[in-house]
Amino acid sequence: MSQICPDLISFPESPATHPDRWVLMNVHTRQCIGAGPEVLAVLADPDKTTSETYRVWKIWRFSNIDGLLADPSRFKRDAATWGEPENLDHGTLVKMLKDQCLLIDDLESYRARFDFKKSLLDRQRFGTYHQQLGQQLIAFERRDPTAWWLQQKFTPDLSAIRQDNLYGAVQDRFLDEWLPKRMKPGLRVLDLGCGAGTIAQKMARLGASVLGVDPNEEYIRLATERAEGDATFQVLDLNQPRALDALPAASFDCIYMSDALLFYFVPYEPGKPLDLAGFIADVKRLLKPGGTFLSLEPHPVFYVQPWLGDPARPFTVTTEYLHTHWRINPPLSVLARPFLDSGFVITGVEEPASSRSDPHVPQRDAVFASEFPVWLLLEMKLADAAS
Ligand SMILES: C[S@@+](CC[C@H](N)C(=O)[O-])C[C@H]1O[C@@H](n2cnc3c(N)ncnc32)[C@H](O)[C@@H]1O
Asked: How far is the CA of 20 from the centre of ligand 1 (A)?
């Protein structure tokens, strides 16, 4: 016996121009279709045929492929671009609604699908965000995730952060304003998980003496090729035992980490937790007295929520906060607590957001990110040094 999926929402996509084009979305799985209002009647009573044909638009797309900070709603925006609908009979419609988890036969087996994927080709289990992205990139699009990540964040020559998405509109602008207040000539900085070194270079241009480390040899090769000022780079995998032992104690004024600490809280590979306590002990050992740990991580309220509503008045549907099943980053208290318990105090907090009217990025992105901060910056010092 079919029933409406309890995770379903429906909303008109472009009510001013196409009042008869609705989106039906499963907010947990992000599956969706475009539908005429006659389809809504079928949701109310799936066994009853109320029309000869039903209009459906196949609008589902894996929009995160556009970038980690691109509109994550996973459907084709603007009903004017949907093209012609398919006209389905009742049986075909019900099958499609079931395929998209908008109608379900059995709540228990539907719930069982909320589990880690067992392989790259597993389409039965919904899996984590990273598994979904990995499946899309590697199995379906045959793209190299390492190269993809660089392309969605940086300009082709890697000298700068792209300005046409929220990396530029939020992170880059924030860093350009904020880093000069913290960096100064001679400051010794360690950038952990530095990627291809673009942010490390930004700090070096402000006079800091920066060591960037990352396990990805290609990223370090690119970073080294472009190194200028006092910036050096080294292949180093934080997950290897004693990875940081070669660096002398009390040798850094500042340890910086962006979009990399999250892996200690939500492991990239499900079920393989990383050693957070060991990591924090390393940070404490490496910091000079009075030194600072700077953590810039995706903001728990922002990341991978569907962005809905009018572009000028967007809203989101939050499906999880304290228990991170699908998101990739921890809630604020879970992020901060291990550091506080290890003797750090938080000396600064920032929530970088965008300007509503940023002309470089789509209006929806700019307005959405002006309300929901994209990153969370925590500035921490060891308690005895901070007092
Ligand atoms: C999302 S990128 C962020 C890169 C850079 N910090 C930035 O903000 O542009 C995550 C980085 O963490 C690095 N990373 C992943 N596992 C790591 C590990 N075990 N040790 C050090 N870095 C790691 C990746 O290679 C990647 O460069």
From this structure: 45
Task: Give, for ligand 1, the residue of 259, 282, 329 to mutate: max count of ligand atoms closer than 8 Å to Cβ.
Answer: 259
Ligand 1 pocket: which of 162, 219, 220, 263 to mutate (most atoms within 8 A of CB): 263
- Residue 248 pLDDT > 70, yes or no? yes
What's the pLDDT tens digit per position in 14-35? 999 999 999 999 999 999 999 9
Average pLDDT, the chain: 95
Is residue 254 within 8 Å of residue 292, measured between CB atoms? yes
By DSSP bridging, strand 8-14 and strand 18-26 are antiparallel
Choice from 194, 203, 264, 328 to test ligand 1 binding pocket (greatest atom count within 8 A of CB): 194
Q: Is the pLDDT of residue 37 over 70?
A: yes
CA 315 to chain centre: 17
* Enclosing domain of residue 100: 3-113
| Ligand 1 neighbours by CB, cut-off 6 Å | 193-195, 199, 214-216, 219, 237-239, 258-260, 263
356 and 244 within one domain:
yes
Between these two residues, 236 and 384, which has the higher pLDDT value? 236
Q: Which of 113, 143, 168 is the last residue of a domain?
A: 113
Q: Dihedral sign, CA of 341, 282, 235, 292?
A: positive
pLDDT value of position 31: 95
Same domain, 232 and 331: yes
Q: What are phi and psi of 357, to 5 degrees?
A: -110, 25
